[in-house]
Design a protein that fits this description.
This protein is of the alpha/beta class. Among the domains are: 4-289, TIM Barrel, CATH 3.20.20; 484-515, no CATH class; 534-601, RNA polymerase II/Efflux pump adaptor protein, barrel-sandwich hybrid domain (OB fold (Dihydrolipoamide Acetyltransferase, E2P), Beta Barrel). The protein is built from 20 helices and 20 strands. The protein has helices at residues 12-21, 27-39, 51-60, 64-75, 98-110, 126-137, 161-174, 192-205, 223-233, 254-260, 273-286, 310-322, 329-343, 352-366, 374-380, 393-403, 412-417, 424-433, 440-457, 468-481, and strands at 4-10, 44-49, 80-85, 115-118, 141-147, 180-184, 211-215, 237-240, 266-268, 486-492, 495-501, 509-512, 534-537, 542-547, 554-555, 560-566, 569-574, 579-584, 591-592, 597-601. It has a 9-stranded parallel beta sheet. Strand 10 (486-492) and strand 11 (495-501) form a beta hairpin. Helix 2 runs parallel beside helix 4. The longest helix is centred in the last third of the chain and has 18 residues, at 440-457. Residues 484-511 and 513-530 have low confidence and may be disordered.
Length: 602
């Protein structure tokens, strides 16, 4: 009897990179491994989309469309190249208009994509209708998705087999065109028995011959068991990655699954152990200089209590490292349970996983529900679609007050169509204003990446990857500087100080960072206003996203002075009372530390 052929998608170059390195791997460093994967007989790759689209512009100063073209050239015309899309969000963190959803499918088809896996984090089927239609319109294969996770212990109301049956029935009844169906568990928390029952349920519901897939992560330690349960239930395809970006927060390793199914009646993609070993050796060499966060390789028993997806976990811990607050990570993970429960049980996958993390971080840093992350607030208010269960009424009320928005039941894409800022004409005008050619690619880059997209297109983006060699150079430079005079910033018991060190026996001058003189390029002070001056400080480390108020301007309590970007959040810095802005002490794109003086109110 012939073994059942199981289609294998190699997620190494999309989800693997996202889960382990936060997507920060440069093209020239990994393409030799793509060639090795091709030689090993792999023909189905996840090669772009999801957060891996934005990460190239945000952190690598590379164009995702160029990467996709190059990938296609390496693997040839017959390979199945797959991307990840978030329904009406496509590869953006915000909802796209119909124009932008259409442009997404058109551009991804143009740049080498074969299949788009299309999901909605809320399992709101309304968000899959138009996006799925446009994918098929442009001749792409549409893999429609039901998103999975396990609820935190003690929580009930969604994410059981009955709930998934309801979602799948709505997809089928809606007549959404599809070529395959995927059950996607980004957190890797679903119990293997639930996976088995879900696949069995689906197999009975869908037409005979329908291709069913399972995607999961090893983050909670049950991925291999989940895949074996899915195979036993009749799944047709699974996703795996290659070492060293397999296991841990990523997908199970290809070699691990080949071993786990040894002696069983399955042929995993026709893959051979020795050829995969050679491929993994090349990949290991390609990535040898990249710093691998220890949490990326770990299986955590705490993840089902959050639940935190692998792809978002390392992206967030990398940002926490960048902002020197990684010590707060365990608190944030513990805080996520309440955020998930009160948020209506949207699946913990991008962008909802990011909303959960941002709100949990706010609750840890600023106090429970003192600040509402914009994405989380808009989600509970209905601006991204209908959540699986009703969000907590008290949290909804707080979100409405903080964001100045009323709850809505209108379809997310209809709301986006009414927003002129989400029109192609708006972004075309912005590009022309910046002197950037308004190609369809550039329009989509700007719409998907906002200000960071504009920064990239203007040639002003920076490379931010963590390489071991560069970290050693920084450490050596820091060590050599320790014996020289100059100006330094030091941290003592969590407080930051500027230190002026002079040669010889001169006095050492130490001042708190927030008392230091503003940057030379900062906006000048306005003429002194009546009333006592009040310092306004950054509540979190981050970057200055926008400066709204000007020195000399009269403001009321609650008026926005500037906006910081921290951990992919927009943090409003508002006036604590009525007064006159005496000074704005930072500029756009400045990096600030927690507690740094950013403005003075008179």
């Amino acid at each position: 009897m012939a073994k059942k052929f199981i289609d294998i998608m190699d997620t190494t170059f999309r989800d693997g990179f996202q889960s382990v390195f936060g997507g920060r791997v440069l093209m020239d460093d990994f393409f030799p491994a793509v060639e090795a994967a091709k030689e090993a007989g792999i023909t189905h790759f996840e090669f772009g989309g999801g957060a891996r689209f934005q990460s190239l512009f945000f952190y690598l100063n590379e164009n995702a469309f160029d990467m996709m073209d190059r990938f296609r050239a390496v693997v040839g015309p017959d390979a199945n190249l797959q991307t990840l899309a978030r329904g009406v969000n496509t590869v953006m963190l915000d909802t796209g208009s119909r124009e932008l959803v259409d442009l997404h499918a058109k551009m991804f088809r143009k740049h080498g994509t074969t299949t788009i896996r299309n999901f909605d984090a809320l399992n709101d089927v309304e968000n899959l209708k138009y996006s799925g239609e446009r994918i098929v319109h442009y001749g792409l294969k549409h893999e429609v998705v039901v998103t999975l996770m396990e609820l935190p212990p003690g929580c009930t109301g969604a994410h059981d087999v009955t709930f998934y049956e309801k979602v799948l029935r709505e997809i089928l009844d809606a007549g959404i065109p599809y070529d395959s169906i995927c059950f996607k568990d980004a957190s890797g928390t679903s119990a293997p028995q639930k996976i088995y029952e879900t696949v069995k349920m689906a197999r009975k519901m869908v037409p005979e011959g329908t291709h069913l897939r399972l995607h999961t992560h090893e983050t909670a330690g049950v991925s291999v068991s989940a895949y074996l349960a899915a195979l036993d239930a009749g799944i047709d395809g699974i996703d795996m990655a290659a070492s060293p970006v397999s296991g841990g927060t990523s997908q199970p390793d290809i070699l691990t699954m080949l071993h786990a199914t040894k002696g069983m009646n399955y042929d995993l993609g026709g893959l051979e152990l020795e050829k995969i070993l050679e491929y993994e050796d090349v990949l290991t060499d390609c990535l040898s200089d990249y710093f691998m966060p220890p949490e990326a390789t770990q299986v955590s028993p705490l993840i089902p209590f959050s639940p935190m997806p692998g792809g978002a976990l390392t992206a967030n811990t990398q940002m926490m490292r960048d902002n020197n607050i990684l010590d707060r990570y365990p608190e944030v993970i513990r805080a996520m349970r309440e955020v998930v429960e009160k948020g209506g049980y949207g699946t913990s996958v991008t962008p909802v996983s990011q909303f959960y993390f941002q709100q949990a971080l706010n609750n840890v840093i600023m106090g429970p529900w003192k600040q509402i992350a914009p994405g989380y607030g808009k989600m509970v208010l209905g601006y991204f679609g209908k959540t699986p269960t009703e969000p907590d009424p008290e949290v909804v009320a707080i979100a409405a007050e903080k964001l100045g928005l009323e709850p809505t039941t209108e379809n997310a894409i209809d709301l986006a169509d009414k927003d002129e800022k989400k029109s192609i004409a708006c972004w075309k005008e912005r590009l022309e204003k910046e002197g950037i050619e308004a190609t369809e690619e550039n329009i989509f880059i700007a719409a998907a990446c906002d200000e960071k997209g504009i920064t990239y297109l203007k040639g002003e983006a920076e490379v931010n990857v963590r390489k071991i060699s560069e970290m050693k150079e920084e450490k050596e430079e820091s060590t050599s500087m320790a014996n020289t005079s100059g100006s330094y910033t030091v941290v003592v018991n969590g407080e930051k100080f500027n230190v002026q060190v002079a040669e010889g026996e001169a006095d050492i001058q130490v001042t708190p960072v927030d008392a230091a003189e503003p940057a030379a390029a900062a906006a000048p002070e306005a003429p002194a206003a009546s009333g006592e001056a009040e310092d306004i400080k950054a509540p979190l480390p981050g970057n200055v996203w926008k400066v709204i108020a000007n020195p000399g301007q009269s403001v009321n309590e609650g008026d926005k002075l500037l906006i910081l970007e921290s951990m992919k959040m927009e943090i409003d810095i508002v006036a604590p009372r009525s007064g006159v802005v005496r000074s704005i002490n930072v500029n756009v794109n400045d990096k600030v530390v927690e507690g740094q003086l950013v403005a003075v109110l008179g």
